[in-house]
Amino acid sequence: MNIIKSIFTKPCSPIYKLLGSRSRRAVCGNGKITEEPDDYHPGGLHPVSLGDTFNFNQYEILRKLGYGQYSTVWLARDSKYQRYVALKILRADCYGGPHDIFEREMLLKIAEKNCHQGHHHVSSLLDHFNHAGPNGDHVCLVFNVLGHHLGHQIIKYEGLRLPVKSVKVITRQLLLGLDFLHRKCGIIHTDLKPTNILLELENPSQVISQYLGKVPPRTGPMRGGIGPLREVLTTPLIPDMAKPHVRIIDFGVASWRGNHLTDVIQSPALRAPEVIIGAPWDAGVDIWSLGCLTLEFVQGIVPFSCQASKKGTWTVEDDHLARITEIIGPFPPQFIEKGSRASHFFDKQGNLIRIPNLSPTSLERLVNGTAMPFSKPSDMPNADVPIFVDFLRGMLAIDPETRKSASELLQHEWINRGAE
């Protein structure tokens, strides 16, 4: 039996589940899901209503744009400069509490180090201030309003695949942004994922004014009553944009290269090997995440999506390490030795303890297989396949010591071949 067929049809193979979990995003939004219901308490989120004003009435809240564990984000009108802005209101305990994140300081550093092309692909701080509310003192951050995150874009394409030409444009911009963050600012994002990569709006003032005029505010169950729900500003598909431009956002869990906020970083499917086994980590974790995302953007698959055994035979982390080994190859012994948690996963010979029987495949077979979702994209020339795989290998090297940096990857043939 052809090995690739047996790998993808064998239920006990960890890579088998790729066929059943091609994306970690779920499409929902019927207005019935309560947003952040338990986070409005002392030290938590600040309660906001449409029409509220901040910073001595400078910013008036118009719509809700998003929310997360540490903040809510709002579309606001800036009366001082007559513009629309995105206002991010952090939890009260983000500063002076148990979390004490670095976000404001990092954004000020980014604003200071603006003599690099990558500066244009990172969220830019316009203003910041503090706001006293019933749940404490909140740091508030002001940004330009952006459009869709890439997760919203991907679900609009057949097979969840973006056009290869668009992926090259986006990936190059992301590498510029990461090179700027890593080398000029000393910042590791640690949470690069589709929802943290946003497209700039073309003619933002016009787009936002038209949206506000046509679309009534979304409301629904909130904190025991009815309140504003998040909205998505209309954004064209990437190929329909004259010059697609992305920005990396959200530094709420980012770390300085010399001062880590936490060692629990990255979305599980995008988590670098060194983080899983407890080895030292640096800027290379962002490069690993980008490698996973680039393959996802091109093929519509999440290469290292993982889950625990239903029988409890292996854990999510065991499955993750098995998938990496099956696709990329065995973990180098000298790298395993650096992991404080490595003995939990590997025996003395470097074999996985709980998943000893693996079904090896390769990046080549994920990109140029015989059937969907592993077939070659129709818009990728045959000659580009080995070049693309080599590009991916530079980002998905298991040992971060051999992983390429953003500046090195910007020189790669694939990212420059045929790109505008």
Automatic annotation (TrEMBL):
InterPro entries tied to this protein: Kinase-like_dom_sf, Prot_kinase_dom, Protein_kinase_ATP_BS, Ser/Thr_kinase_AS, SRPK
Residues making up the signal peptide according to the UniProt record: none
Cross-referenced Pfam families: Pkinase (PF00069)
EC number(s) from the headed UniProt entry: 2.7.11.1
Positions with a binding annotation for ATP: K88
Domain Protein kinase: 59-415
Enzyme class: transferase
Molecular-function annotations in GO: ATP binding; protein serine/threonine kinase activity
Keywords: ATP-binding, Kinase, Nucleotide-binding, Serine/threonine-protein kinase, Transferase
Top-level taxon of the source organism: Eukaryota
Catalysed reactions, semicolon-separated: L-seryl-[protein] + ATP = O-phospho-L-seryl-[protein] + ADP + H(+); L-threonyl-[protein] + ATP = O-phospho-L-threonyl-[protein] + ADP + H(+)
Gene Ontology CC entries for this record: cytoplasm; nucleus
GO biological process: regulation of mRNA processing; spliceosomal complex assembly
Homology family: Belongs to the protein kinase superfamily.
Name listed for the protein in its UniProt record: non-specific serine/threonine protein kinase
Source species: Aspergillus campestris (strain IBT 28561)
Lineage: Eukaryota, Fungi, Dikarya, Ascomycota, Pezizomycotina
